[in-house]
Design brief:
The chain is of the alpha/beta class. About 45% of the residues lie in helices and about 10% in strands. The protein contains 12 helices and 6 strands. The chain has helices spanning about 5-10, 15-20, 30-35, 50-55, 60-70, 105-110, 115-125, 155-170, 180-185, 195, 215-220, 225-240, and strands spanning about 85-90, 95-100, 135-140, 175-180, 200-205, 205-210. A 6-stranded mixed β-sheet has the order 1-3-2-4-6-5, sandwiched between helices. Iron/sulfur cluster binds next to helix 8.
Length: about 240
């Protein structure tokens, strides 16, 4: 039996997400209240001396946030509105890493707030998790790639020290790499999702699981059963670590 996309989403418990796709972008009170004509905030392009002097590997959260906000280490700085460091619980057991900010993320300064983000939130809910509670969400690159293209290898390499520092500071129990660019950046090797998923990988002593990017699932849904398996695998892996 073949199912249409709506039926599949419904079966995944993601039906409302699909419905949200057809609503206008600006539907929240906040969005509507935001004055469209407000002058843009001046960009912060100055790094505090201490942050500029310290390598990312020695930064605390404030220094890291300041350094990323002002970073010009790769060409992705040119078209961004703002760099997007990450969001959530800085003591989280769970770290989810995506590819890079999209248009909405660039506007709002938070990862995964667009359509893929709504799916990610529902995937989190499916395993009893919630954005911000024991969960941190970041991206492989902090600035939006133009036209939402995949980050180039040199861009991912330029940005990696920030992600590495985030991981050192958070010390999560489990890292979930969402899609190939995140997996390759973290594992520093060529990755094919089809063969990398369903296995436990190691990131400097931290367990790492690779799965599909939510935007890919939204586009294709061919792999929805596998996405479910991956969610269950994540939950089992975390439970095993916690002795449950
Ligand atoms: N896709 C990503 O990989 N990251 C985001 O923050 C949004 C969409
Ligand atoms: Fe800097 Fe990363 Fe933005 Fe490139 S993508 S400018 S390395 S913060």
């Amino acid at each position: 039996m073949t199912m249409n996309r709506e039926q599949v989403l419904h079966e995944m418990g993601l039906g409302p997400v699909w419905k949200l796709r057809v609503t206008p972008a600006a539907t929240t009170v906040e969005d509507l209240a935001a004055p469209a004509t407000a002058p843009a905030e001046p960009r912060r392009e100055t790094v505090p001396a201490i942050a500029a002097a310290a390598p990312p590997g020695a930064m605390d959260w404030d220094e890291l946030a300041a350094a990323v906000a002002a970073c010009r280490q790769c060409r992705l700085c040119e078209a961004r509105k703002q760099a997007v460091l990450g969001v959530g619980d800085i003591n989280a057991d769970w770290l989810f890493v995506g590819e890079g900010p999209g248009a909405e993320e660039d506007q709002r300064g938070e990862p995964f707030v667009g359509q893929a983000g709504k799916l990610l939130d529902n995937m989190l809910a499916a395993i009893g998790l919630k954005r911000g509670t024991d969960v941190y969400i970041a991206n492989a690159v902090k600035c939006r790639p133009p036209e939402n293209r995949t980050p180039a290898a040199d861009e991912a390499a330029a940005c990696r020290p920030y992600l590495e520092r985030q991981i050192e500071l958070i010390r999560p129990k489990l890292i979930v790499a969402l899609g190939r660019p995140a997996a390759q950046t973290l594992l520093q090797t060529e990755v094919k999702i089809a063969s990398a998923r369903g296995k436990l990988h190691d990131y400097h002593g931290i367990q790492l699981i690779v799965t599909y990017h939510p935007a890919y699932l939204l586009r294709t849904l061919l792999d929805k059963a596998k996405a479910w398996e991956d969610l269950c695998f994540m939950r089992r892996t975390m439970k095993a670590q916690k002795g449950g």
